[in-house]
Amino acid sequence: MRLPLVVGNRKGCPYENIEYKMQKNNHHIWQILESVHDPEIPVLSVVDLGVVRSIAQNETGLEIKITPTYSGCPAMDTIALDIKYALEQAGYQSVKVNLVLQPAWTTDWLSAAGKQKLLAYGIAPPVEPLTSTKALFGAEPIVSCPQCGSEHTVMLSRFGSTACKALYRCEECLEPFDYFKCLR
Amino acid sequence: MFEANHYPEEVNVALSDFLLRMADTSLVLGHRLSEWCGHGPILEQDIAMSNLALDLIGQARNWYQLAATQLGQGQSEDDLAYLRDAGQYRNLLLVELPNGDFGQTVLRQFFFDAYHFHYLQALTESGDENVANIAVKSLKEATYHLKWSSEWVIRLGDGTEESHRRMENALRELWEFTGELTTPNASDQLLTIMGLTPDLNLIRPLWEQEVQVVLAESTLEIPNRSWMQKGGKNGVHTEHLGFLLAEMQFLQRAYPNCEW
To answer: At the N or C end, where does chain A have fewer CB atoms within 10 A?
Structure first.
């Protein structure tokens, strides 16, 4: 499902102002990107998610590089379109959104604000695993319940509603919840 | 997303062969796993298999895009996936086998993941940076897949009498298809000399070690058979692949260039 963009309509939009356009810089672009949301976790902007890797502007246009969270993340095409749309709505022309694989995305790029937003939304943010993720049966992270804060939780399934989440249940308040997996 | 690297003709042919194998293997296994969607034994594992499929199909797209770039004949990733016949597919035989029961799917996944994990880890050192970049990305996912499949092999092998019996059946069914995972063909040999892919002979002991540990924990015995099937890497497949492609490619075959 496509989510409505938060950029607002063009009429009365300050970015329509030519003077403003001349002053536009990357800071302004980041602000616009803050308004583009992950279609699967709408509380997170693409900036919170850490998928925007670079912004390059020259006479021929604007290039935004994004990186996928997971190889098969079905939201990437929508995210690319939404970014292009939001920037074009804001008056930028010849916007290109290109996908890059290197360096590979990690949950370390999730912003601190993003983690807070996840928690408030009822999704437990990623936590450090206790041992190397490369170990076959390495210890699992201690995931706190986003509802009651208890550390007394169990993993129900390694996979959840999207590629980036696992399913947990709190043994205190008995609520099931999504955990945003730690990916390194 | 990729820029082609230039190699002598012979090397580029071998590299394309390898890239298509990586792509075809991930796509075919992803397709098999997606057949479980709506049929899983429990909801959580139904979702798990769809997630595995999603990762694999995403990885396949990366490999196809790189293969198309290296081939340089103007093909798209979709052309490579949908417009080649079984004889042109280069996937490993193991992944085209029918799902069987949940135990057989889990064991097939484990055999594949154990190979995939170690192979990708070595491929992160590839002399071709595009290959290394896809490997780094895929490895993160394969690491997680291996945990899932190892846990399920143990749970079912060391589970009830019924689950143990089914895992023994699966082992008998699948074992002879595991040799191909770590047996190099001519392309592999050339690419290893060129420093583009690791020597599969060095991946084999790592795979065996992984399998021994998990099967021992599962109370399953490694079959005492050394004869192995081969052919997938060179386009010689089981009868199952044609049926799989007939379903997967139907739309593009019936309505060429159809988009939705």
So the answer is: N
